[in-house]
Design brief:
The structure holds 2 protein chains of 2 kinds.
Chain A (H helix, E strand, L loop, with lengths): L1 H23 L3 H26 L8 H20 L13 H23 L5 H19 L10 E2 L14 H24 L1 H11 L1 H6 L4 H27 L1 E2 L6 H14 L6 H16 L6 H15 L3 H7 L6
Antiparallel strand pairs in A: 1-2
Helix pairs in contact in A: 1-2, 1-6, 1-11, 2-6, 2-9, 2-10, 2-11, 3-4, 3-5, 3-9, 4-9, 6-7, 7-9, 10-11, 10-13
Chain B lengths: L5 E10 L2 E11 L4 E5 L6 H9 L6 E6 L2 E2 L5 H7 L1 E4 L11 H13 L13 H13 L15 H14 L4 E5 L7 H14 L5 E4 L3 H7 L2 E6 L2 E6 L1 H6 L1 H11 L1
Parallel strand pairs in B: 3-8, 3-9, 6-7, 7-8
Antiparallel strand pairs in B: 1-2, 1-4, 4-5, 9-10
Helix pairs in contact in B: 3-4, 3-5, 4-5
Classes of the chains: A mainly alpha, B alpha/beta.
Chain lengths: ~325, ~250
């Protein structure tokens, strides 16, 4: 347990160190890469709560990521054009307003999708979550008011009081702080009564029910929290690119978030950071060399799943496979 | 006669043409061990599943502590104090022994949605859990992963989890299955003590254990109860000897 906590902190520290060294040596591009890792890791932390701790293999978490992105872009573009939203409410460029809105909308979507899909399990659950995400994807594609398949851009990154969000390092600091906060929340949740119940429903739903705990509400709450964290990540990702497109809701994105979790180590706190970092590193190093870099990711994923089910963090901790 | 804790009235359940439960009426009285025996396929497990709410009967009623519980689901019946152990041990394998019992304590309290405080630092969970482990004979094994327990210890863990539910009745489905001679004897003592906490409906194949423990025995054959009575009555019953005990002798 203690070694795992040290590893969690070390992985997070490494990411911050990478960003600082990049900044010190004047490589702003690398700071942006670190920011991207932090944001994608945040989405992974969200999914990990459902997939890793709850055993809910959702293949539709891009929906929540994309919703966070669209909420951000829509609010920002309305603010930029001084067009009120529905009910006369104005748009906004304040992250402190955008984040909660993005999380609430993603949470509501999580509540609806979770309530309708958690009655199924196994392959059916995977397919139902995928279907919901694809529905939202096609909705985004076919909604011309917000860019349709071209996506929606906004020209100035949203603002945070007292911080120049357009500079790479402050924006990294915002993303890394939110990642740290999400890790803290995640650590709290998984150790709490709720976390105990959630992990029990994953391992043995029959036993859990026989002790008087219904799995459904426990899973639904985990699914909603997980969706909210992904929504926040999607909001930051839209701000990073100052752009959101339907692709952020597609099944590719769901798959990528899942890859971060599996590469890094399912059900391990800092696993998604390690997973996202390796994924982005491969993309940056191999992407320019060959268009087929994803093939290598595939091979790596296969090796991890076959020989190191604990993922990268599991390999480091050298935990033996059990059961 | 004392009011029964658990009362089944004319339960019926068919799977297609197979009558798995065919008009079973049965009571579990305070302080007794009531053994349910019968050959394989007699419908014992199906009956247990109807009592805990896993299967809905086609007709008939289940009353628990004077209250109809037919509309309640598995979790709600468990919270009322209907504690069950499974034919094949069901524990949470990656949890420690202590965490397993904490889960059951939590289920009994019904306070699941607490998100901040670490469960392991919650004396409201850990203290009762430790007590139940001690009562089940597992003191000193708190930190061991459940997956690493021996078969016999896993049985005891299930009993500790059942105790954590503050049970008003135990439903034990073949607790002796797979136990060695010594283990079975230990468990027999444990079950005998358990009777003081709440009555036990005991499904069991080990006839030594049944004859040693049971106050009353019911014999189920092809979904029907063919006899209910004391150990002596059941031993002497010609129909039981023919259809069940005779096969083994």
């Amino acid at each position: 347990m203690r070694r795992e906590a040290i590893l969690d902190i070390a992985i997070f520290a490494l990411l911050v160190l990478f960003a600082l060294v990049a900044f010190a040596t004047g490589q702003n591009f690398a700071v942006t890469i670190a920011t991207k890792i932090a944001i994608l890791a945040l989405a992974g932390v969200g999914l990990n709560l459902a997939l890793g701790y709850g055993g809910l293999v959702s293949f539709g978490h891009a929906a929540f990521f994309g919703i966070g992105g669209y909420v951000t872009a829509i609010l920002a573009s309305h603010a930029a054009n001084y067009e009120p939203l529905a009910f006369g409410l104005p748009g906004t460029t304040q992250m402190l307003v955008i984040w909660p809105v993005a999380m609430i909308v993603a949470g509501i979507a999580g509540l609806v999708i979770g309530a309708l899909s958690l009655g199924t399990s196994g392959v059916y659950f995977i397919m139902v979550t995928l279907a919901f995400a694809q529905m939202l994807y096609y909705l985004a594609v076919s909604w011309p008011a917000y860019g349709g398949e071209d996506g929606l851009s906004f020209y100035v990154r949203n603002s945070f009081p007292g911080v120049n969000t357009l500079a790479p390092v402050p924006f990294f600091a915002i993303c890394a702080s939110l990642l740290a906060l999400a890790l803290l929340v995640s650590a709290c949740l998984t150790r709490s009564r709720f976390g105990l119940a959630l992990q029990a429903t994953r391992q043995n739903p029959m036993r859990t029910t026989a002790t008087g705990i219904r799995p459904f509400p426990v899973r639904l709450v985990a699914f909603v929290i997980s969706a909210m964290i992904c929504g926040l990540a999607g909001s930051l990702y839209a701000d990073l690119n100052r752009f959101v497109s339907p692709a952020s809701m597609s099944w590719h994105m769901s798959g990528e978030i899942m890859v971060f979790v599996i590469l890094g180590g399912v059900g391990r706190l800092a696993g998604p950071i390690a997973g996202a970092a390796v994924f982005i590193a491969l993309e940056q190093l191999l992407g320019p060399v060959s268009d087929y870099w994803l093939g290598l990711v595939g091979v790596l994923l296969l090796l991890i799943v076959l020989f190191a089910p604990g993922g990268i963090t599991g390999l480091i901790l050298r935990e033996k496979r059990h059961g | 006669m004392a009011e029964p804790i658990l009362e089944l009235t004319d339960l019926r359940k068919s799977f297609g043409a197979l009558k798995a439960t065919d008009g079973v009426s049965l009571t579990l009285l305070p302080g007794e061990i009531h053994a349910l025996i019968g050959p394989n396929g007699a419908g014992k497990s199906t009956l247990i599943k109807q009592i805990v709410g896993e299967i809905r009967p086609d007709s008939g009623t289940v009353r628990f502590m004077g209250q109809g519980i037919d509309a309640l689901d598995v979790a709600a019946r468990a919270r009322l104090g209907l504690a069950r152990s499974f034919q094949v041990s069901q524990v949470i394998p990656d949890f420690t022994v202590l965490q397993n019992v904490m889960l059951a304590v939590m289920g009994a309290q019904g306070r699941v949605f607490r998100f901040l405080r670490p469960a392991l630092r919650d004396p409201g969970l850990t203290e009762p859990a430790a007590q139940h482990l001690e009562a089940a004979g597992l003191a000193g094994r708190e930190g061991v992963k459940a997956a690493a327990l021996s078969h016999g210890e896993r049985r005891k863990l299930e009993i500790a989890m059942a105790l954590a539910l503050q049970p008003r009745a135990f439903l034990l489905d073949e607790p002796m299955a797979g136990m060695g001679l010594e283990g079975a004897q230990q468990l027999t003592t444990l079950l005998s003590d358990l009777r003081a906490k709440a009555p036990i409906l005991l499904v069991e194949h080990d006839m030594d254990a049944v004859f040693a423990l049971a106050d009353r025995i019911s014999v189920l054959v092809y979904g029907r109860l063919i006899a209910t009575g004391t150990v002596a009555e059941i031993r002497a019953n010609p129909e039981v000897q023919r259809s069940y005990l005779g096969e083994e002798a």
